[in-house]
Amino acid sequence: MSNKEYIHVGLLGLGVIGTGVARTLVNRADELSRQVGCQLALKKALDCDVTRKSTSGIPDHMFTTDADQILEDPDIDIVVEVIGGDTDAFEYFKKALVRRKHVVTANKELISKHMAELIALATENNVDIRYEASVGGGIPIVSPLKQDLVANNIIAINAIINGTTNYIVTHMAAENMDFSIALKQAQELGYAEADPANDIEGIDAAYKLAILATIAFRSEIGPQDIYCEGISRLSSRDFRYARELGYAIKLLAIARSDHDSVQVRVHPSFIPEETLLANVDGVFNAIEVEGDLTGKVIFYGRGAGSLPTTSAIVSDVLRIAQRIHLGLPPTTQPITSSVKKITPISEIVSRYYMRLTIDDSPGVLAQISKILGDHLISIASVIQKEADEKSQTAEIVIMTHPARESAVQKAIQETEAIPVVKEIGNLIRVVD
Amino acid sequence: MSNKEYIHVGLLGLGVIGTGVARTLVNRADELSRQVGCQLALKKALDCDVTRKSTSGIPDHMFTTDADQILEDPDIDIVVEVIGGDTDAFEYFKKALVRRKHVVTANKELISKHMAELIALATENNVDIRYEASVGGGIPIVSPLKQDLVANNIIAINAIINGTTNYIVTHMAAENMDFSIALKQAQELGYAEADPANDIEGIDAAYKLAILATIAFRSEIGPQDIYCEGISRLSSRDFRYARELGYAIKLLAIARSDHDSVQVRVHPSFIPEETLLANVDGVFNAIEVEGDLTGKVIFYGRGAGSLPTTSAIVSDVLRIAQRIHLGLPPTTQPITSSVKKITPISEIVSRYYMRLTIDDSPGVLAQISKILGDHLISIASVIQKEADEKSQTAEIVIMTHPARESAVQKAIQETEAIPVVKEIGNLIRVVD
After folding, report:
1. Which residue stretches of chain B have pLDDT < 70?
2. B187 Cβ under 8 Å from any chain A Cβ
3. Which residue among B44, B113, B208, B250 is the active-site one?
């Protein structure tokens, strides 16, 4: 039992999430303190935007625009970092650790890029880092994966971990809507940002996948290791064909143990419509973890938003505060114990959906089949749609049996070069 | 860092789960030891059935029929209790704690009935108790609820936590099968025991719900507090009507914050067919937790079986072993901090499904409607099915708006007394 009467929190960032955290810490101070066993209180909150002094609703004296008021205050025990990004946030994070402050963060970019360095620095300074909020918002996943599933060898993770893209693909599917319109709607509703690239290109999902894969495989896996393809090439036709074939299309973040190496990839995926993952709609997230003992376990809930993310952050703060109060040493440990190779995307084996626009003339399918056959890609089914009379073209959809990505890419190149093939509409991997 | 070179495990019980645990500890000794940081080894395993010496596949010298070989061995640090029940297991559990051994268990009966006493004894003896496997098999739920959602006020838990009953209701729904046949099939496939009462009467689900509710509401809630109704009254007709009305029927374990008190109940429930819970089929489990910050979070997976349960047990063993190795004090703490009243079932408010067999004569519905109206129960919809010509009876199904249980029970009694009402087929609560 420590003899501290107060445990003080400093908050870096008063955006949507920071405001949720600040209000929860202030409004529930009594309740949270009871759970800790001594007073837990927000002391200072930083934002460079002074208008947030009033909009955040915290008492005026708690607001500061000077990070050192938090980082240099020996009275602050726990720093919550919700600035985001890896510039200022990274510097503040490291400084907080060096000043022997525990850090709780929701910053997936920072954790995915610098986890090993930050953990080393925390260990050196005898403090804890917690980042449950960095993946899946209010869904417990970091801690369950790290602790409750630790007896398993993880076989695979299939995750819907970006709410913006899941909102967009859900609407494209349900309303037969094209990408640009669905994106615009999502922006109007505040589910997508003005510059949506980070979400729709799969970058945000890749940050989160890097964190999950690092924990699951105990090997340092960064965003740069992840093959990443966004949702902007999807058309309403892809969703229509998917439905006909019994699939949903989701942006999946996939990590898979592959003998001595690991597959890590983010891309639109066909998933069988009867699975739970195929039915995760709108801004919801779901993370499916397959362990060799436990089988498939799914964690589902709101993957973003102020209050769900606040749930994860304040729970992390509480756990650290309880340890401080009890005088217990920090638990942060290096989580990587091996170095796993990353399987290049060209070497993965998958089933594929291919959509092509062709001249509506005899013999075209024979030519395409020949190319696929030459590359040892065998066809599971073909749908040929009625021709468009005006343009004299037709659309065909091919589902393949499992094939190697490199072979499929070569076959697609050769197919594209046939004069009667007008366009390769899309190529989407099937995840079973 | 402790200077122990070995951490030894003693195993009580070599049934299906014990065998899974024993084999995992033996076969993965190197891997698990690497994770702990020192040798983690199974030392002795107890079973009163000597045939299990060979069937379990553990080395002969590890087998014993004498519990003291484990409980009195100062060299054993962690005891895994998978005997089940609350007689021998309870004595051994307490003795292990008194002998300052950490205990990991899958025993929901014991934990739900004696949690406070066991935690007090563990605290007194400076050891840990872990029981992740007691609810949801391989699904992490105890620890996430206790730790990762701790910042929330829990509003409700809706859980499918008994695989046997979920297997039975899934088959009744899918194959239009009657209860007795579905039960027999489940028994033949090993999904139901020869004496199935514990599962089909909802007792097993009530044990698990007591554990979850105790953690969620930080108040001591035992199995005796839980209103409990099994699935044996369900008929294939109920499933047919449910489908027509847009619902699935599941045995739900429900805990709900209700002002200053708590509702805890296990009963068959109508749930809207489009929800994820309605689509949890077969032996799978799902626990939906609604927190005031995080919203609804769902944990899904295999709720029973040797390997999933082994996953939870061995993960718990690993976490304790890591603490022993690092010389850290135990973390077990009392989890109850308040005493919440239990709402009597008569006071709950719910929508209801009622199925009745009536004489096929004019005016019957008017009589029933009058009784319901007298008790302030308003009708949302009525389905009257074509009459059975031979018996001159018809079946009607009534869906009510929200009504108080006590009023509904009185109305049902009065309805049953009308001469033209032949039988109250079923009364099932709707959970939205």
Report:
1. 1-3
2. no
3. B208
